[in-house]
Amino acid sequence: MRERTRRIFVVLGLILVAAIVAAEDEPSPASDDTVRAEGTRPVVHVVHWDDAITPVTTRFLAERLDEAADEGAAALLIELDTPGGLIDATRDIVTDFLDSETPIVVWVGPSGARAASAGTFITMAAHVAAMSPGSNIGAASPVTMMGGGTDSTMASKLFNDTAAFARSIAEQRGRNAEWAEQAVRDAASITETEAVEMNVVDFVASSQEDVLAQANGRVIEIADRDFELRLDDAEIVVKELGFRYRLLSLLANPNVATILLMLGIYGVFFELSNPGSVLPGVVGVIFLILAFFSMQTLPMNLAGLMLVVVGLVLFLLETHITSFGLLTLAGVAATVLGAIMLFDSPIPALRVSLPLILPLVILSSLLFAVAIGLSVKTLRSKPTTGREGMLGLQGRVRTALAPEGQVEVHGELWKAIGQEGEIAVGETVVVVRVEGLRLEVRKV
After folding, report:
1. Number of folded domains in the chain?
2. I need a surface site. Which of 36, 196, 223, 262 has the fewest CB within 10 A?
3. Which of 139-148, 164-173, 206-215, 239-248 has the lowest mean pLDDT?
């Protein structure tokens, strides 16, 4: 068992090392510096984000912005397609944009993309904002880290604060402040042509090259001074998301967080049910840590989390208490309600999808139904050890029972007494009673 445990930890260690190495293998800034120093063309860094806005987004864009500044990029072009996200993460991104001395261009693209909710603030905070044909922007009502459930006073404060935030961004960038406030209070949403007409964005562009061509020569304000964008014949350097941020983005998915939470609880449960197994406990703890990391980046509802835990506790009690399935039904109901409430947000990308909840509930029910069935089978099965385990076993007489003698049962010699008087050597007998270390038998 120790050797097996050692091997498990070695394998987990190798996986961790491989993950770190893969993360460190991301392109380094030095390689781009060398290429740029040899040419005279302006270089534009391009990043793409097509997911919800979370603290992972904040970290990723902040690093790309620092990288663009360190390498002297002519601009940072962000291709954006987002359903929205968390207001706290959005504020951090907007702050970085407003303080940036590197020109930032946000393009809501490609065609069919959207800059909803948090994406509206990010787009308006850019030095140059553009949209692709068939895209839309708006519906910027706030989303808190703890989801819904605020009272009318708190909701009013939150909306007023967010509306003022939107107006501040629009005024600083010279955009339509009235519409920015309307997008917060009334969840207003407009198309790309309406956005240009209403001075929400600067222009419509069909590609990254078109964005740079129309942005070239524009005068923007950086650090309280005018700055002319020179992007003619610019070299585009695409900055990939990289392994580390792909992993973090995956963990920030509410569906993944729910799966990790359930698997983590299962692992710990089986470790407690079978002490010394090691592997279920180790894997369960790792999954729980990852699930807790995911939850801190998502609008988690504490009531939903408590319901999930209560549901699993009810499943566990069913294995120890005879309730004729009532505890299991209650556990299924609590788990379903908890999973639905776990990540409470008006944004679908920040909620657990129903097609995921149902298989998880069915799997949990089947898992504990099997556990309950095995427990019942064990209770009903004939004992195989101790005094009760001897009853009904057959053996052979080794010394004549007259009425006492010796019999061999289960490969062992026992003192025995016959119920039917003398029993000859070699006869087959069955144990009918156990008194201390003596068996009472009868002839078969």
Report:
1. 3
2. 223
3. 139-148
Residue 184, domain CATH:
3.90.226.10
Task: Tell me the one-letter amino acid at 42.
Answer: P
Indicate whether 235 and 149 sit together in one domain. yes
Query: Is residue 9 one of the residues assigned to a domain?
Result: no
Q: Look at residue 1 and tell me if it is in a domain.
A: no
Residue 16 forms part of a structural domain: no
The rounded percent of the chain whose pLDDT value lies above 70 is: 78
Q: Residue 308, exposed/middle/buried by CB under 10 A (0-12, 13-18, 19+)?
A: buried
Question: By residue range, what is the domain housing residue 374?
Answer: 253-380
User: Which is nearest to 160 in space by CA: 145, 142, 172, 187?
Assistant: 142
Neighbours of 194 (CB within 10 A): 16
Question: Which pLDDT does position 372 carry in this prediction?
Answer: 63
Calculate the average pLDDT of the chain.
80
Distance CA(257)–CA(387), nearest Å, equals 50
The verdict on 351 and 393 lying in the same domain is no
One domain, residues 189 and 286:
no
The b-or-e profile of 284-302 (16+ CB within 10 A means b, else e) is bebbbebbeebbebbbbbe
Considering the domain architecture, whether residues 342 and 277 belong to the same structural domain is answered as yes
Q: Which of the listed ranges 20-34, 67-81, 84-98, 358-372 does the model predict with the highest average pLDDT?
A: 67-81
Distance set, CA 255 to CA 183, 260, 360, 376 (Å): 28, 9, 11, 34
Q: Choose one of 242, 267, 286: the last residue of a domain.
A: 242
Q: What is the pTM of this model?
A: 0.66
The better pLDDT of the pair 196, 283 is held by: 196
Q: Are residues 238 and 259 in the same domain?
A: no
Is residue 185 within 8 Å of residue 160, measured between CB atoms?
Answer: no
Q: Give Cβ neighbours of residue 144 (< 8 Å, ≥ 6 apart).
A: 86, 87, 150, 158, 299
What are the tens digits of pLDDT across the range 204-231?
999 999 999 999 999 999 988 999 999 9
* Residue 78 placed within a domain: yes
Check if the beta carbon of residue 54 is closer than 8 Å to that of residue 297: yes
The token duo for 252 is: 């920030």
Element (H, E) at 316: helix 302-318
> Edge-to-edge, what's the strand order for the sheet holding 128-131?
203-204, 128-131, 104-108, 75-80, 43-49, 235-238
- pLDDT above 70 (res 330): yes
Q: Do 412 and 369 lie in a common domain? A: no
235 with 299, same domain?
Answer: no
Average pLDDT over residues 125-129: 97
Question: Does 70 share its domain with 211?
Answer: yes
